[in-house]
Amino acid sequence: MSVDLGVLQMQILWLLGKEPKHGYALLKQLRAIKRAPLTQGALYPALASLERARLVKARKAGVRGKKVYEVTLKGRKALNEACGEFVTIFQGIFGDFYCTKCAKK
After folding, report:
1. Where are the chain's structural domains?
2. pLDDT, tens digit, for every residue of 84-97?
3. How far is CA 26 from the centre of its chain?
4. pTM of the model as a whole
5. CA–CA gap between residue 46 and residue 104 (Å, rounded)
6. 66 conformational bin, left if phi > 0, alpha if psi -120 to 50, beta if neither
7. In the Cβ-directed half-sphere of 73, how many Cα atoms lie within 13 Å?
8. How many CA atoms within 13 Å lie on the side-chain side of 90?
């Protein structure tokens, strides 16, 4: 199975893989780890795309019926594959960046 995930989608799957969350909680966590501001206009289309691909599923929870998102088995497999590819692609860049930076100290 090959799924081409963007960085935001990988981050969403990674966070939801730790525990199911509703959209606003996810938005707050992503804002805390990203340098660029993240808006609802970016998050919810990414969640919808992941849902259409059956990588996450939503269920209504609580009195107000908020959507709570969780990773599916297919989503966990896609995340593992995408993270492996990400590490392979960027391993040299990370190594060069950190090794060069450390050598200057």
Report:
1. 7-103
2. 888 888 888 777 77
3. 10
4. 0.79
5. 39
6. beta
7. 0
8. 10
